[in-house]
């Protein structure tokens, strides 16, 4: 097992993209920035990688990503271990387990890990009755305040880190298992160039007020991995998010806004954004009488 290092990025991403893994859970940028909060380490082989996740359990692993033979070998090697657990299992991974291991795993759906998917143009335009409230709040913000946007660049990084720092020092509910973004947003900002992050800063009445950004997940999907505000201001998140999506290359038509961690407020926000789909996730444990 190894610490997740930037020098592994190209190899991890090559394996992920080779095998068509399009969820945010296994993307290198996500793994890198969440390694401190989730206790992640990586096993990296020529045709597979697997990530151990101490937040999910002492012997919990993301479902391995790679070739079928390499994945099966990894799984067989861990079947007899105590408390072996798999998480972030996609429906196609679930089918792989059922095909190759029969009924040896007990699988359950984990809605807190589902990833929300959105149509990019819908999130920019906010047209129609489904988006009435979001559109009204955004319009009111723009009417009552001077609101501008700047693309994040090295000269703006200090302001971005200040917003992230102020956000972290405000009280927030914890996600499932006590997970909180204590280090992820700082890590993504400090390594924005290496992780190829695209982000914007929103200014309200001349003051930096919000931060929003992410990275390309695959050919047509952009991962919206962070959005922070200096203080709660109705309509600001919709404004910053929309302006970020406007500047993306045209090839990105789908937005992945990741999971809601079981947090009611975050779940309500993401559901109110009107997702067009979900990446469903499962967890699995070995049947003890089958190990």
UniProtKB/TrEMBL annotation:
<dbReference type="InterPro" id="IPR016732">
    <property type="entry name" value="UCP018688"/>
</dbReference>
<feature type="domain" description="Phosphatidylglycerol lysyltransferase C-terminal">
    <location>
        <begin position="23"/>
        <end position="276"/>
    </location>
</feature>
<dbReference type="InterPro" id="IPR024320">
    <property type="entry name" value="LPG_synthase_C"/>
</dbReference>
<dbReference type="Pfam" id="PF09924">
    <property type="entry name" value="LPG_synthase_C"/>
</dbReference>
<protein>
    <submittedName>
        <fullName>Uncharacterized conserved protein</fullName>
    </submittedName>
</protein>
<dbReference type="InterPro" id="IPR016181">
    <property type="entry name" value="Acyl_CoA_acyltransferase"/>
</dbReference>
